[in-house]
Amino acid sequence: MHGLINRSVQNFVCDTFGKDVWLQVTQRADLGFSEFEAMLSYKDDITPRLLDSMAAVTHRSLTDLLEDIGTYLVSTPKLEGVRRLLRFGGVNFEEFLQSLDDLPDRAKLAVSDLDLPRMELDEKPDGQFDLICQSPVPGFGLVMTGVLRVIADDYGALVVLDHETTADGFERVSITLIDTDFAEGRQFELGAPII
Amino acid sequence: MKGDPDLNMLDVLCPMHLVVRNDGRIVHVGPTVQKLRPDMTWIGAHFFEHFDVKRPKSVQSITDMRRKVGTKIHLALRGDPSSDLKAVLVPRSDGADDVVINLSFGISILDGVRTYGLSNADFAATDLAIEMLYLIEAKSAAMDSSRQLNLKLQGAKIAAEEQAFTDTLTGLKNRRAMDHVLARLVSRKLGFAVMQIDLDYFKAVNDTLGHAAGDHVLQAVAQIMVEETRAADTIARVGGDEFTLILPEIEAQQTLLNVGERLIERLEKPILFQGKECRISASIGTVWIRENQNVVPKDILSDADIALYQSKNAGRARQTIFDGRRRPLVS
């Protein structure tokens, strides 16, 4: 799994629970080190171990934690870049949803060895969308649920989100778009300086 | 012109265009061109009042531009803020004299959107400008991350190298570092001296007061050697109680004798460890290599050893300078 993903988990745990908890998580996961490098790759089995250990140490359910990671990724001021890169996807929330199919390719353009799970958006009547995630590590849909919650807010859209794992092992995030123009949303300037 | 279906089409497909009469009068601008000068009345203004043609130089009028249909023209928007733009011109197909000039920021896209506060809506939906901006941001972030990693790795490399050349107990250089320095001096045929120093009675300290006392003595010895030599000199701990000093730019044998004498004198002063006195001394063997001498490191070290053993055999606590004829001079 790419260092960016593991490093995101590290930043989330450090910022949410503190550095001490992070050290406990890495010890419990038996990593042999405590710092992930964003630009290096790590063995695939490390990430699930890390996540399980995080749940055990924090006494929180992995489901909640994964969604919180998604929320964290796009709301922490430290990672303003992630929010901005996602906002390039579209001028409104619906256009953003339609751009999610391209997200793994967009990510690859930025970091060529970053493999994000494939996603597919199904459009249903009445402002309903299903986002189907096909991830080798279960739980990516939960992370996306957290991301979508914040990004919808960012666009000023009012949405209801629901996550489930389908019988064939895919994850489905159902998105009910109640109002695209519910609130003001956050400003997005195309040419904002890079942090 | 309002309601002209062609112009409505152009506004969507290329929102940064102008329609210009043959005499240079502007008759229509796309919505993004309007954003470049929001308060200006474009309609009726003269094209060359607001744009300079930078390349090709030969183009100075709309008639000239008509000869460049479909090719890239470099423009500069006059006034403040000014911008460099790329342009392409096509005549309108309906028989009128008008030409359509489509503009783009080209490689200055980032400056363009920043300067004029442009948004997604200011570009055609198929324009790659937004993707370009995305890439600039994404690549800059990734590059930044990589640069940080590179700096970190470079720091770790320097630290590792430093460690590999350092004796961890005393902080002096180790044998590897000493070999390195010696090889460099020899290959450049520079003048220098090598001083081989063996501590006397050190084993007794270790045996009677323990290893902690021994370590303490070695650290104190290192400190004395640093104090009694110059910054350009190399001090290495090459064995348990063996040290090698490399002293470049020695002018006279007396200098070496003075250094050796001072070292022995200071090392003989008792070193305190947990209230107990540790007494040692040192035997020294020195080789002085003059400039432009053809020597090999191995011989220098063995000559220094010969001199050192002369000192030891003569009763320790003294120094010997190897005289080059294998007849060491004991002092």
Walk me through this protein's architecture.
The complex is a heterodimer of chains A (195) and B (331). Chain A has 195 residues and is an alpha+beta fold. Chain A contains eight helices and four strands, in the order αααααααββαββ. Chain A has a four-stranded antiparallel sheet, covered by helices on one side. In chain A, α1 packs across α2 (19-28), α1 (3-17) runs parallel beside α3 (46-58) and α2 packs across α3 (46-58). Chain A is globular. The mean pLDDT of chain A is 90. Chain B has 331 residues and is α+β, with helices and mostly antiparallel strands. Chain B is 42% helix and 22% strand. In chain B, the strands form three sheets. Chain B has a six-stranded antiparallel sheet with strand order 2-1-6-5-4-3. In chain B, a hairpin with a 5-residue loop joins β4 and β5 (83-91). The longest helix of chain B has 36 residues, at 129-164. Chain B starts with a helix and ends with a strand. The model of chain B has no long low-confidence stretch (mean pLDDT 91). Chain A binds chain B through residues 37-40, 81, 84-85, 88, 90-91, 106, 109-111, 188-191, 194, and chain B through 110-114, 117-121, 130-131, 133-142, 144-146, 149, 152.
